[in-house]
Hints:
Layout: H1 13-28, E1 41-46, H2 52-63, E2 67-71, H3 85-92, E3 98-103, H4 108-113, E4 120-125, H5 131-145, E5 151-156, H6 163-172, E6 178-183, H7 192-200, E7 204-208, H8 211-214, E8 220-223, H9 234-240, H10 248-251, E9 259-261, H11 282-300
Amino acid sequence: MPRHLLNITDLSMEEIDELMDQADDIMKTPEKYQDCMRHKKLATLFFEPSTRTRLSFEAAMMELGGNVLGFSEASSSSATKGESVCDTVRTVACYADIIAMRHPKEGAPMAAASVCPVPIINAGDGGHNHPTQTLTDLLTIRKEKGRLNQLVVGLCGDLQFGRTVHSLMSAMCRYKSIRFVLISPKELSVPEYLRENLQRDKVSFTEVERLEDVIGTLDILYMTRVQRERFFNEADYVRLKDSYILDTEKMAMARKDLCVMHPLPRVNEISRSVDSDPRACYFKQMLYGKFIREALLMKLLEVKA
Ligand code: NCD
C-alpha cells in the first residue's frame, strides 16, 4: 500500500519535525537535491482553482530534477464526460509516480486513495482539509517564532469553510500549551466537530467576534479569506465578506513580535499597507511552501538526497 497524505494527522509529530528539518536543509543546500527525483513524475490533478499550491508542487518536483504532468481545471479532463475521480486516478497512476489532487468535494482524495496504487496528496478537498498548507504554516511558525508550543494562535475570518484553518487546528492542538482564539462572525464559526475535538483534547480556546478586542494577546494571527465559492447564496457572502480588515491601526494594537499569516489569496482582509510591516509573514509563508513540498515528495516516494 502506498503512503498517502490525506489528513495532517496522517503524519506523526516526529515525521513533521523531520520534514521541516529536511526543508531547512533543501533551502540551505539546494544543489544537493537537484537530481534526486530524476525520471520521477508528479501528476497535479486540480479540479478547483489554485495558484500557489499547484505551482509550488510543480516547482518543487522540478527543483528535485523530476517532471510534472496534469491538469489545472476539471473542464480539461474527462470529468466533464462523467468520469469518476476513482477512474481518473487509476488512469493517472499508470503515467505518474505520485499524485497531488485538489477537488471541490470533501473526501474526494480519500475515495481516490482507496483505489490508487501510487501516493495521493490531498491538495485541498472542499471546505474540509488542506494538509500541505498546514505543513507550510508549521514551518513558517517554527522559522518565525522558533517554537511550535506555548503560543496564542488567533484564527480569523471564515472558520466555517476555511479548510486551511481546519487542518492547522488539528495539527497545532497536538503541541503543548497552545491556546486558540477563534475570531469570526457567528455564522462563520468553526464546524462543531472541531469544537468537540478541542474539548475532548482539553485544548484551551475562546470564540470572539471582534479582532480589536484580542489582537494584543496574540503570538500568531492567521487571517483567512471568506470562501465565496462555498456559500449557498451570494447575498450572505456580500454581507460577510468584509467582516475583518487588518489595517495599520489594528496592527498598532498588536505585540511587537506578532506573526501575521495568511494562506493567500487575500481579498480585502489584509490591507496592502500592512505588507511592509516586518510582522507580515504571508509572503515568506508561500515561499516556505515550496521547500516543505519538496521534503514531502521525497518522503512519500522514499527518495534520499
Ligand atoms: C487556500 C485554499 O485553497 O484553501 N489557498 C491555498 O492553498 N494557499 C486558501 C483560500 O483559498 O482561501
